[in-house]
Amino acid sequence: MPGKGDMTIREQTEKLEYQIFSSYAAHSRETRGRDRAEEPCDIRTEYQRDRDRILHSKSFRRLKQKTQVFLIPEGDHYRTRLTHTLEVSQLSRTIAKALRLNEDLADAIALGHDLGHTPFGHAGERALNEVCPFGFAHYEQSVRVVELLEKKGEGLNLTWEVRDGIRNHRTAGMPTTLEGQIVRYCDKIAYINHDIDDAERAGILSESDIPEESRRIMGDTTRERLNTLIHDVVHNSEGQRKILMSERMESAMKYLRAFMFQHVYRNSRAKSEEAKAVRMLQELYHYYTANPDKLPEEYRYLMQEKGEAKERVVCDYIAGMTDSYAIHVYKELFVPKAWAFPSAETLPDAHRPG
C-alpha cells in the first residue's frame, strides 16, 4: 500500500498517460464519469475497470453461443459473436497503441459493442424490430444491457465514454472519442474479412470469387487484407483529430462489403434457416407479451419495480438468449412432448396387444 502522500498505482498510470499518449487521446483522469459516483480503484484506471466489468458479465459469456453469420454451424472453426468481438478488440488495441491513444478505452468499447445482439444474428434483430412497438436495434440494446439489464437491474455503471462508443459503433454513428472511432472501423474490418474466411470454409466463396479490384488494392488473403486496412487507418490518422481511412481504401472496403451482402449475407445457403429463426423468435415474443407472468423473476422485477414496458422487457429476455437456449425454450412451449407409453413387456397380460 502507498504511504502517506504517495500516489496509488492508478494515479501513477494516469500520470504516465499524459507523458505517453497523444494529446487527442481520452485520458482516464478526464472521463465524464459514471451515472452513479464510485470510489476509484487504487490499481486500475476507470476504463480498465469498465473493461473488466464487461469481461466478467453474463452477457459477454453468452456471446459464445450467438450467431455471427452462419446459424448454428456444424464445425468448430466458424466465428460466433464472441470470437468476432475478440477480433474487433485485438484490431482496436493494435490501432490505439500505434496512434498512442487509450488502448484500455478502445478495448472496453470493443468488448461491449455487441452485448445486446440477439440470438441468430441480424435475423433475430430484424425479427424483434418487426414486432416490438418501440423498435429494436442491437447497438441501443447493448447500451441497455450495461445500463440496466446486468446485475439484476443495476447495470454495470460504465463510464460515459465507453457507453458512447458502444452506442455509436454502427456505420451511421460517430463516437465522440477517437478510441470509439477506432472500434467503429475495426468492427467492419473484422467482420468483412472473417466472414470471407468463414464463407470460404463453408464452400460459398473461393478466393478467386473476391472482386479483382478488391484483391489488387487490399490483398489476396485475409491476412494481407487485414494488414493493409490496419496500416491505412494508422497512417491516415496519425496526428489527426479524427480516425480516418484513405478515400481509395474506404471505397474498396465499401465495395467489398457490398459484395459480401450480395454473395454471403443474403446467400440462400448461408441464410436457409433464417426464416425459421425469425418466426421462432416472433412466436416467443407474442407468447411472453400475452403471458408476462411466465418471464423469469428478474424480468418481472423490471416491469413491477422499474416501470419498464412489458414489450421492451420481453425483447430484453429474448435478445439475451443464446441460439441454443432460444430453441430449447421454443420446444418447451410449442413442441409436443412424446407420450411415455409403457413398453409391452411391462404391461400385464390382459393389456398386451394380440
What's the quick description here?
The protein is mainly alpha-helical.
Total number of helical segments? 16
CATH architecture of one domain: Orthogonal Bundle
**CATH class term of one domain:** Mainly Alpha
Distance between the termini: 85 Å
Radius of gyration, whole Å: 24 Å
CATH superfamily of one domain, by name, is Hypothetical protein af1432
Rounded average pLDDT: 92
Strand composition percent: under 5%
- Helix share, percent: 55-70%
The computed structural class is mainly alpha
Q: Give unreliable regions as ranges.
A: 350-354
CATH topology of one domain: the name is Hypothetical protein af1432
Instruction: Give the overall form.
Output: flat
Please specify the SSE layout and strand pairing:
Elements: H1 9-20, H2 46-55, H3 58-62, H4 81-98, H5 103-112, H6 121-131, H7 138-153, H8 160-167, H9 178-201, H10 212-218, H11 222-237, H12 247-265, H13 274-290, H14 297-304, H15 310-319, H16 323-334
Helix pairs in contact: 2-5, 4-5, 4-9, 4-11, 5-8, 5-9, 6-13, 8-9, 9-11, 9-12, 10-12, 13-15, 13-16, 14-15
What does it look like?
With 354 residues, the protein is mostly helical. It has a domain of 217 residues: Hypothetical protein af1432 (Orthogonal Bundle), CATH 1.10.3210. Helix content is 57%, strand content 0%. It is built from 16 helices and no strands. The longest helix is centred in the middle third of the chain and has 24 residues.
Keywords:
mainly alpha; disordered C terminus; 354 residues; Hypothetical protein af1432; single chain; flat
